[in-house]
Amino acid sequence: MSTETMTKSQEQTAQRTARSLVWFEIPADNVERAKGFYSALFGWKIERFPGGMEDYWHIDTGGPDASPDGGLMKRQQSEQCITNYIAVPSVDEYMNRVQDLGGKVCVPKSAVPEMGYFAVCQDTEGNTFALWEKNQDAR
Predict the structure, then answer these.
(1) What pLDDT was estimated at residue 75?
(2) Domains of the chain and any CATH numbers
């Protein structure tokens, strides 16, 4: 989408969205063991994520509001590794950019209700990362 076709609101959002790390997810074969490890190592507070996500825990890193927190979850696949989420103004736009640059979209745009949208991608070197678009209207 060019700036000529963007609305004023979309353009302002794009200018304000720093493309920085906003969330991370750590998969674990044994969640209790991982909770103990990261709590003891870094002093992180790890508690069940609110809102009915049964097998997902919130990691409070204890930093200022601008520092990223994360999630801890049961490993879904043997090769699953830590995923970093990068803030973008539009998941749709950045999924297209990933593909145009030779990367892959592994998990297409998905909603996290009342929080935003994400997509999981892979770069040209096989590294996994996720795009995150904050949007309280997400359904």
Answers:
(1) 95
(2) 1-19+88-139 (3.10.180.10), 26-75 (3.10.180.10)
